Here is the input.
Amino acid sequence: MTTASEPYVLNIGPQHPSTHGVFRLRVVMDGERIQDIDMVVGYLHRSMEKLAEERTYTQNIPFTDRTDYLAAMSNNLGYCLAVERLADVEVPERASYLRVIFAELQRLASHSMANGTFINDAGAWQTPLMYMFREREKILDLFEMTCGARLTTNYMRIGGVAFDPPPEFYPAIESLIDEMPTRIAEYTELLVDNEILIARARGIGVLTAAEAINGSITGPMLRASGVPWDLRKAEPYCAYDQFDFEIPVGHTGDCYDRFMVRLEEMRQSVRIIRQALDGLPSGPHKTEIPLALRPAPGEAYARVEGPRGELGFYVVSDGGPAPARFHIRAPSLINLSLLRQMAVGAALPDAIVTLGSTDIVVGEIDR
Amino acid sequence: MTAALDPIRAARVPLTGAKLVIGVIALVILAGIAGGVGFLVVSGALDGHWYDLRDLGIPIAHLRGWLDEQNKAQPAQLHDLLGDHWISYLTTALIGAIGILSFVGGVLLVLIWVERRLIGRIQVRRGPNRVGPYGLLQPVADAIKLIQKEVLIPNGADRFLFFLPPILVFIPGLLVWGPVPWAPNMNYLDLNVGVLYLIAISSLATIAIFIAGWSSNNHYALLGAMRTVAMMISYEIPLSMALVAVVLMTGSMQLSQIVQWQADHNVWLGALMPLALFTFFFSSTAELNRTPNDIAEAESEIVAGFRTEYFGMKFGLFYAVELGNAVAVGAFVTAFFLGGWSLFGLEQWIPPYLIFAVKVSSVYFVLVWLRGTLPRFRLDQLMAFAWKYLIPINLANTVLVAIEVTAFNHSSLPGVVSLGAIGVVNLVFTVWVARRWARFLGYRPETEHVLHPSLQTQVGGLRAAERLRASS
Amino acid sequence: MAALLEAGVPGSVVTSTDEWVEVRPERLVDALRWLHDDPEMDAAQLSNMCGVDRYDHFEVVYHLQSLDQNHQIVVKARLHDHEAASVPSSYPVYTGALLQEREVYDLMGIRFEGHPDLRRMFLWEGYPGFPLRKDFLQISADHHPGLPHFPFETGKQER
Here is the structure.
């Protein structure tokens, strides 16, 4: 006698404690195995790209905050680089160093959140998340000190940065950078050899290097698969070529490697910030540009190494004050191209852990 | 935070002046009371009298004696019909039942506060501290909130079966406190087959959870219910086998006898049989659906598992009973493995039920600690652990304990020596055989194979990746 | 570079500047495949793909990245048909085009022939129109949305 079982559809999201935002997965399951997975996005679609065509270039900077709201500084930076390339605007050196400092601080904050929520998905009830949030709180306090906002910072401007950090910024960031290595060592000690985490994350969601490259995966996911590619080293922007740092490259491309790569990137960020602080030149913090910048007709594509991957901005100008086309290359969306391949055939908990290691932000997916 | 902004530091008031004087006076009074009590205990003035509150069973026994005497003065027909002791039985049964009910109810209320504050402290935050001083009224606030919620039944759910599970899960939560031995004379339900009773009653919760999941007409709930049933059934067996080892060693299924054995031999069964202790503890976390074995209600995957469609006081009952069961598990671990109310002779001085309560609280603290710290296992990993690892090794442990008990009963060595030998043998078994068995099953400590990411400075693509892989 | 591409995939290149190469839509996938396979060009990764509405034609822009050679190649394709704009899908060459092509279809209305699962992604099936087109709100080509100049600009000339 044979027993037959019928596959059923489980709807994960859009309201769900672990989908990192309003993101919906329709999973066809047979028992606990996943047969097919279908993504439904668009719950947070705010038509930013269309709205940007009616605003000046500077007015579009707050839009970029709200795409990847967990890495607002990187978004701002990418957009400003694109417009500066389009309009041929020079950036003073102090502004470049400040941009690097804030982008790396943002990377620290974003990776704290990414790793914390990853372990939350694996089951530890927010304890590592709370520990990592201690440092994130201090980083957000630094942001608030400088530009007034914690999350949607709107700090970079076309031609530099908006404000010069106040005098109380420097001792605060010094103390933070001094204590960060001990904190990261604490997380490493508690989490890296944790048997349960290894059992949950090792061998799950494996991507080979060839699959990852062909699938347009970038960022920590690509590096975890063994490909040494980092835009800060490949196309150094904003004074990155003057700093001495290394990029961590994983071995197998599973969730555990991605977690380790992000943890190691936090250490490298601390190094970069230390060097940038030590060598911070004096000077103006931005170049004056007209309020309604009218670049010559043309196009530019600039990208930065955001915490989630290659964050690219494609800006087309037709000579007017507003861009003719404003496109954001969202790493979270593109990193999801291979979710189906990673998740089909796995058990449901594994798919959730894989989704957690992809580190998506729905604001960026939907724009 | 700077010191000026840190409210905790600002709230510490220095201890000077009137506070110091009052503190000293209070200390003197307490010392006086303690000295008086100590004198009474040593001089034997308390033993056996009805005011010997060190063991609450003694006043109850005196009460029963008094009631029996009153019983003898009743009319003869009633006496023939009902027997000699029915008044005292009825009265003491009622007193015990009300005592247990109020205790369990009180514990459930307090536990909500304890668990949330403890988890908060483990997570470097404070936990609820708004409602009442130190958040002590939080359970009351929770209860009021849950009671005033609208009663909704999901479309397509079976009405009767949907209402049943919270009640069905509360009943074992109460019944299971019956045989717990609080003190040498404080046993409400001292069954000869106490262990069997416990195992049977604690399985009732499984069917309640399954009914809850099935009747909810919800895929998440069904998935959670299936996982729960699979897990609970699997872990009943190692649980029972750990208790079999205990029963073999002490020669009795009666909980009071088990604790008495530990008191007489001045040893804790947990020290003698570490494998049984570990198995019981781990299986209990699986039975309780607590991390690291809370796959059935894994919040990050299936929202709330079998409890998804429950809200209001039904959900409150599930939640509270889960916490109450955690304390019940603490009570069993204490009674079986940690010596119960005995503390190497100190139970003359300190009331045994206080010792018991402290031990139960510490086991509960360990359960909360585990919950706050560890990630959870996947279901197939859990099941493999139970069936492939725990059951065979507990079988072997049972055989070993049987041999040891026979040797112990026939040996003429002083008790301490033979018990020490048994303890050493069991420890060696636990550590060495357990590891060998794990390796046999294919477990390689992956920490030997964890490769940290390599640090590179040159960027490249596929060719560079292949080069790196070839060189590592 | 355009000369090499013309040699490799004859009949594909229309124009080129030192920033980009424009290819014919029919030969697009062949050109991409040649760029992907050629060891000197080595366009291993599709970095970005998007569509631009230039009022009288559509443009589909591909930014290709070579990781080993560390250079970027920009390929464009021009489509003049507004009603039934269609281009062969590059999914056979780059699996990363899966979601990006769906996005371009959803927001711009350009169909990709050969895509395994071309559905609208952000908007629902049945949504009237394609939002990122310039004529979506019935604004004609010679009237740009918004003001001709902003109130804070004093003394500026009209565009």
